[in-house]
Amino acid sequence: MADNILEARGLSKAFRGFMAVQDVDLSIERGSIHALIGPNGAGKTTCFNLLTKFLQPSAGRIVFEGRDITELKPADVARRGMVRSFQISAVFGHMSALENVRVALARSRGGNFDFWRSERALSVFNDRAHELLYDVGLSDSVDVPAAELSYGRKRALEIATTLALDPKLMLLDEPTAGMTESDVARIVALIRQIRSGRTILMVEHNLSVVSGLSDRITVLARGRVLAEGDYASVSADEAVITAYLGSEHADA
Ligand SMILES: Nc1ncnc2c1ncn2[C@@H]1O[C@H](COP(=O)(O)OP(=O)(O)OP(=O)(O)O)[C@@H](O)[C@H]1O
Questions:
Q1: Ligand 1 center to 124 CA (angstroms)
Q2: Distance between CA atoms of 249 and 252, rounded to whole angstroms?
Q3: Burial degree of 85 (CB within 10 A; 0-12, 13-18, 19+)
Q4: Best substitution site from 15, 46, 173 to test ligand 1's pocket, by max atoms within 8 Å of Cβ?
Q5: Disulfide engineering: 76 pairs with which of 67, 72, 110, 131, CB 3.0-4.6 Å?
Q6: pLDDT at residue 118 tops 60
Q7: Which atom of ligand 1 has the smallest separation from the CA of 42?
Q8: Where are the domains of the chain?
Q9: Strands 67-68 and 59-64, how do they pair?
Q10: 1-81+167-252 placed in CATH 3.40.1280.10
């Protein structure tokens, strides 16, 4: 039997009667990179927010590491090792790359003294912060204020701050959105590098990124699971092709 780190059963979300996500079953195998794709409005973001507990489902259950997390808060699931990448807005622009990662490390230890002001307290995280910045290819930008980093490098920093929380399951929300081609290649290489020992679930629009990275793909359309499998099988699926062609703004 597959070793699934995350399972959702019958997951649904209604917004004032409109079913954005309907009866979705999802199994994420440990160690895999799993992509959630689908045309615009398919319910990917809603599904992502349900799994990370930023939204409460109207129906269904979510099990992480064998434990029902349906009623837990986002911070509780993060503490258990299911961490979503923070948005860039959560990276502090005036702080250097190193400081950003140190603060993320401090937060992950749940310290209750004033990390923000105490240089001495934060300096215990220097070595690990340098390692994480090295892992995401930012060793040359350690002292650069986050606001001055390129868009692609900000996303790399955001991934470093997520890795600081030592996730078992990392959820990436459109990791290459708005990037230049060379930044996309960097992030793809980075995701390959950080996958070791982790499971990754990502919502991604760029289908070449999806095909290059994903072990398994779930295609959503109109809030439901339309198809699931590897890239070759879902991209040859008639229903998937029709859903993409039929959507007003195909994502391909
Ligand atoms: N808070 C909300 N209130 C009402 N409707 C919502 C809300 N959030 C999402 N929806 C609707 O639910 C549907 C699914 O939206 P969702 O953002 O999950 O799709 P998506 O697949 O992520 O789309 P995109 O690729 O465009 O980001 C859409 O029709 C959207 O308008």
A1: 42
A2: 9
A3: buried
A4: 46
A5: 72
A6: yes
A7: 21
A8: 1-81+167-252, 88-164
A9: antiparallel
A10: no
Burial of residue 248 (number of CB atoms within 10 Å: 0-12, 13-18, 19+): exposed
Q: Are strands 33-37 and 199-203 parallel, antiparallel or unpaired?
A: parallel
Ligand 1 center from residue 46 Cα (angstroms): 6
Q: Give the residues surrounding ligand 1 with Cβ less than 6 Å away.
A: 15, 18, 20, 38, 40-46
Structure tokens at 42: 């398919």
> How remote is the CA of residue 43 from the centroid of ligand 1, in Å?
5
Phi, psi at 131, each rounded to 5°: -60, -45
Q: What's the CA-to-centroid distance between 223 and ligand 1, angstroms?
A: 9
**Closest C-alpha residue for ligand 1 atom 4:** 15
Q: HSE on the CB side for 250, CA within 13 Å?
A: 9
Q: Which residue has the tokens 């072990």?
A: 215
pLDDT computed for residue 86 by the predictor: 63
pLDDT digits (tens, 9 = 90+) for 169-202: 999 988 888 888 888 888 899 899 889 889 999 9
DSSP string, 89-125: GGS-TTSBHHHHHHHHHHHHTT--S-TTT-HHHHHTT
Q: Give per-residue pLDDT as tens, 154-170.
A: 988 998 998 888 899 99
Amino acid letter, residue 234: V
Phi-psi region of 66 (alpha: psi -120 to 50; beta: other; left: phi over 0): left
Residue with tokens 């930023």: 54
CA–centroid distance, 45 to ligand 1, in Å, is 7
Model-level pTM? 0.88
